[in-house]
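Tokenised fold entry reproduced for absentees:

. . .
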Amino acid sequence: MKIEHIAMYVTDLEEAKDFFVRYFGGKSNSEYHNSKTDFRSYFISFDDGSRLELMKKPNLKEVVKHPDQTGYIHIAFSVGSKEKVDEITETLSQDGYEVISGPRTTGDGYYESCIRAIEGNIIEITI
């Protein structure tokens, strides 16, 4: 069994798509648009077969995201090496994204950083 995909609502669909393509090497399909409901989405595919569905529809409610709430908290990307974690973290920082932790080795042995990225959502970058 595997997770087929994870879905995320966003207010800026194009910006979100470009983020995952640019920084994490995702490949996007063509935009899906349901003209009756104005629902729009992209599937972003990654080399290991995992996929992220980015979705947008009218009248989304923006909520403040807090790292200590219940529910989904972050998406983690394994990038293959400590050097790549450092490189992507530095690039994201230089591009104006907030580094909220790391890069560092955690108490349970992970080398990671966490970035507050698309619309306040946290992205973890690990080996």
Residues 6-56 form a domain with the 2,3-Dihydroxybiphenyl 1,2-Dioxygenase; domain 1 fold (CATH 3.10.180.10). DSSP finds two helices and nine strands in the chain. The first strand starts at residue 6 and ends at 9. The CA atoms of residues 110 and 126 lie 7 Å apart.
